[in-house]
């Protein structure tokens, strides 16, 4: 599998490659066009869904790319690679696979992690029927300080110092939790979970209802990048620790990989509003096993990149050359241009896909 046949340089290219591979593999394709947003070149934005195998089978796999926009280049490559590599033809008779490409197409196309409303889609799936959105009191004390005003070394140093001061008082685990868990009050802040359900969130509900209607056992992977060692997979399994489903994820991918792993060497944040939990809620009593799978890039250095992403979102009259340079830096952080990284993550993504499918077949 040549990695450069699977990775793309733009959302529009990724989408075209995905649709072509799905057609060649005789997938059942449906596209959900964004009602009012386009790519920077005015092309349509869509969540594309390709289904393979037995669509009515009780065992279904749901593999998602692009929840975090620009992180989608990597997950897209794995989905495309699986189709090119003959994955659909190898499926057992009583199983189906649902590939969801570009869940946050706006972010994917506009080279940012968040949606058209600066919402972190992977914090947007809180249960809004049960009262107020989760609080993040520490974030309230940090929001103004963390907001970078100019992209200069001095401003970055000021924000780093503020985070250092917080760490001295509360510890690095608390800082990570505060920055990453999600917050629901500052639309211009980090990990903003949104005031309401995003278009992508509602569309995923339609997709789940239409494609997983007969499923009672679901294998789930949401592909991301940023956490973990460079070029290596990192697992965030959100099945309840110690439960039989958690044990199943350990069986599929290895207990050492799934159990007790610490993102960036810290305690895992108390994430709220995850896609994983949103899909689980839609499935009700039906069982789902799986994980967010990340591919490592710059480790804790991603904090600076997330800050840059937020800053770039707020700049309108920026010098085009400066914007292009900073966006290339971001692209290299979310999906390194390094051919070895791309080859390694594609190979390992295909292996992890096969392991999940073998596990689902034996479930
Ligand atoms: Zn992510």
Key traits:
alpha/beta; 7 strands
Structure description:
Helix 2 links the parallel strand 3 and strand 4. The radius of gyration is 19 Å and the shape is globular. The protein has a single domain (3-134, 181-362), classed as Aminopeptidase (3-Layer(aba) Sandwich). Helix 1 (11-24) runs parallel beside helix 2, helix 2 (72-84) crosses helix 13 (339-362) and helix 11 (302-314) runs antiparallel to helix 12. It has helices at residues 11-24, 72-84, 105-109, 137-146, 153-170, 172-180, 199-211, 244-253, 255-258, 275-283, 302-314, 320-334, 339-362; strands spanning 28-38, 44-53, 59-64, 95-101, 217-230, 233-237, 287-296. By secondary structure, the protein is α/β, with parallel strands linked by helices. Zinc ion is lined by residues 68, 71, 224, 226.
């Amino acid at each position: 599998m040549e990695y450069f046949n699977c990775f793309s340089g733009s959302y529009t290219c990724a989408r075209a490659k995905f649709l072509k591979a799905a057609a060649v593999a005789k997938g059942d394709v449906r596209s959900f066009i964004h009602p009012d947003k386009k790519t920077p070149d005015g092309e349509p934005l869509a969540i594309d869904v390709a289904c393979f195998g037995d669509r009515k089978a009780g065992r279904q796999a749901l593999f998602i790319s692009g929840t975090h926009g620009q992180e989608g280049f990597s997950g897209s490559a794995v989905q495309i690679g699986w189709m090119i590599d003959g994955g659909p033809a190898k499926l057992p008779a009583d199983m189906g696979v649902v590939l969801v490409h570009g869940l946050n197409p706006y972010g994917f196309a506009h080279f940012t992690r968040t949606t058209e409303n600066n919402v972190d889609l992977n914090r947007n799936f809180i249960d809004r029927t049960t009262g107020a959105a989760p609080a993040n009191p520490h974030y309230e004390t940090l929001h103004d300080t963390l907001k970078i005003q100019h992209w200069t070394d001095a401003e970055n140093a000021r924000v780093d110092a503020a985070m250092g001061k917080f760490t001295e008082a509360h510890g690095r685990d608390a800082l990570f939790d505060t920055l990453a868990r999600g917050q629901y009050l500052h639309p211009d802040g980090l990990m903003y979970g949104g005031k309401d359900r995003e278009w992508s969130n509602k569309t995923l509900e339609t997709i789940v209802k239409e494609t997983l209607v007969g499923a009672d056992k679901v294998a789930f992977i949401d592909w991301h990048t940023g956490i973990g060692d460079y070029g290596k997979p990192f697992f965030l399994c959100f099945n309840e620790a110690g439960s039989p489903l958690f044990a199943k994820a350990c069986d599929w991918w290895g207990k050492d990989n799934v159990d007790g792993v610490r993102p960036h060497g810290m305690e895992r944040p108390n994430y709220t509003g995850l896609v994983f939990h949103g899909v689980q809620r839609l499935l009700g009593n039906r069982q789902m096993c799986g994980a967010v799978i990340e591919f490592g890039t710059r480790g804790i250095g991603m904090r600076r990149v997330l800050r840059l992403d937020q800053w770039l979102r707020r700049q309108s009259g920026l010098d085009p050359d400066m914007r292009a340079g900073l966006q290339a830096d971001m692209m290299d952080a979310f999906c390194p241009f390094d051919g070895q990284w791309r080859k390694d993550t594609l190979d390992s993504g295909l292996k992890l896909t096969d392991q999940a499918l073998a596990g689902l077949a034996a479930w």
